[in-house]
Design brief:
Length: 94
């Protein structure tokens, strides 16, 4: 019968705590972002003012749309017959 097999040595890693990272954003980055957003808002307002000066503003477009709708209704009403159709026989004559 033989001798006992050698005992295996197990090495268990010791648990380590998770590494926690904390990023620190400088205050000047927030200021730069705020300035950039304000610049975009100003640019958008300027473009809107230019559009309205040319006649493409919201109120002008609404007036134009109403005018188109009125023209369409007038054309439709003009295409309708003025006199009702005279009644005729529905049975064909041979």
């Amino acid at each position: 019968m033989g001798s006992k097999p050698p005992v295996q040595t197990r090495y268990v890693r010791t648990p380590t705590a998770a590494t926690i990272y904390k990023s620190v954003i400088p205050e000047k980055d927030f200021k730069l972002a705020q300035d950039y957003v304000q610049e975009l808002k100003d640019e958008r307002a300027k473009k809107k003012a230019n559009r309205e000066a040319v006649g493409l503003g919201t109120a002008d477009m609404m007036k134009r749309q109403q005018m188109y709708n009125q023209q369409e209704m007038d054309a439709y009403k003009a295409s309708l017959p003025t006199k009702p159709a005279t009644g005729g026989s529905t049975t064909p004559t041979v």
